[in-house]
Amino acid sequence: MPRKSALAALTLAAAVALTGCSSEDEPDATESPTESGTEAPADPDTGAEAPEPEDFPEVVAEVNGEEIDRDEFFSSYESQLQQAAMSQQQTGQQVDQAQLQQQTLDQLVNNLLLTQAAADAGIEAGEEDVTATLEDVAAQNGLGSADEVVDALVEQGMSEEDIRQDAADQFAVNAFVESEVEVSEPSEDELRAQYDTLVEQAQAQGATEEDIPPFEEARDQIAQQAMSEQQSAGVNTIITELRDAGEVTVHI
Q: What is the pTM of this model?
């Protein structure tokens, strides 16, 4: 199995996931159809077969001299296509494969830019940092320990070395983002204003007073959402600056 985002198989929550800019946040709990020897999945939009790995160049992009190869791209793309197909069953919204391929490539490029920036900033993960990251993944997925995360991913065909490297990279990216993006909790007045806006929106959609929680119950969730949006905007700014300053070449 090509090396990819091992922790993503258990939905690692990353800073870049707030913007959808990371390839490290897509679940892939099943063996890919092409790896298992079966036919490629059908395009959820047209019913046609999805592309094969050989339909893409061996190197799909270069980021400051570092290559993103076809296997990594196609593995991430298949995972996202499977997710999109499941989403389509629930929403009925058709999947645009060309758009999904571009989104996959952008995520891989952006994540590599952030990983490189973290390394340039001298951020390195120690063993305790790696373990803490894996423990966070365990907590997010109902597992009891970092070892259980490793065991679960090894069962899916991933190596422990890759798993721990992914955890180290994820820690470094998170630490870099936290050092570069200033996030502050909104004031009480701002939170109440946002709450009033949400109440108006809910009522416009037919919600009754009984359906709407009081401000005191919704406050923390509103604050967390506001801070997530701040971080998302900050990450987007960082990525734009890294793209402008770097050398990114794509081949698809």
A: 0.75
